[in-house]
């Protein structure tokens, strides 16, 4: 039987959530921004270590204008079945401190609504738009240390525009999700 792993991709509007999924699934990128209007679910099959998995990737429309009220957004997300996902991808734009603050609050909401334990569910923090790194608000190292050491989350930077590290980020997520499932 093929195991299904439910993955929610969350973050502030415009950080590139849909662009990351599109690049992963279709190898395409669109410069024009059209906000995600309704919840989209994608179901690619992937192979890891000779086992096949079905990913159920949920691209969720942002409910409030940016900077949003994350608690309000999260309570609505709970209703959409995002409370019991296998893993979360939290995306921010490496040039936007506000979008990083948003990710910080989302992570807090996830922990509070699950067991409160950082090891309960895999959370991968993704810094997108790496191609614009001259305008980044902090060095990669500064963010990586905070995310990995303090938050105990995975961290990766990517560019959906240039398809840089897109496959790698899904691979990392899959490895940490499958490994965690094996340990329990
Ligand atoms: P979402 O609201 O988080 O789903 O954001 P989108 O995926 O719709 O992307 C928002 C805007 O950012 C669009 O205009 C994309 O073309 C642009 N974008 C997304 N990823 C990248 C990237 O890696 N680099 C650059 N330069 N632009 C990006």
From TrEMBL:
Pfam families per record: Ras (PF00071)
PROSITE patterns for the chain: RAB (PS51419), RAS (PS51421)
Top-level lineage group: Eukaryota
Alphabetized GO MF terms: GTP binding; GTPase activity
Record keywords, A-Z: Nucleotide-binding
InterPro entries: P-loop_NTPase, Ras-like_GTPase_Reg, Small_GTP-bd, Small_GTPase
Residue ranges crossing the lipid bilayer per the database entry: none
PANTHER family: RAS LIKE FAMILY 10 MEMBER B (PTHR46350:SF2), RAS LIKE FAMILY 10 MEMBER B-RELATED (PTHR46350)
Protein name: LOW QUALITY PROTEIN: ras-like protein family member 10A
Organism per entry: Microcaecilia unicolor
Gene name linked to the record: RASL10A
């Amino acid at each position: 039987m093929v195991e299904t792993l439910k993955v929610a991709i969350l973050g502030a509007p415009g950080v590139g959530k849909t662009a990351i999924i599109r690049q992963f699934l279709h190898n395409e990128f669109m410069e024009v921004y059209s906000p995600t209007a309704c919840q989209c679910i994608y179901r690619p099959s992937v192979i890891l270590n000779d086992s096949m998995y079905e990913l159920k990737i949920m691209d969720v429309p942002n409910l409030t204008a940016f900077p949003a009220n994350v608690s309000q957004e999260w309570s609505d997300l709970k209703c959409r079945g995002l409370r019991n996902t296998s893993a979360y991808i939290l995306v921010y734009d490496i040039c936007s401190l506000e979008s990083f603050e948003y990710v910080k609050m989302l992570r807090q909401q996830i922990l509070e609504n699950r067991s409160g334990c950082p090891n309960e569910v895999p959370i991968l923090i993704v810094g997108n738009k790496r191609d614009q790194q001259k305008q980044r608000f902090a060095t990669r190292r500064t963010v990586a240390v905070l995310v990995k050491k303090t938050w105990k989350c995975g961290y990766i930077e990517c560019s959906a525009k240039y398809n840089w590290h897109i496959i790698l980020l899904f691979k990392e997520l899959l490895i940490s999700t499958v490994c965690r499932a094996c340990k329990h």
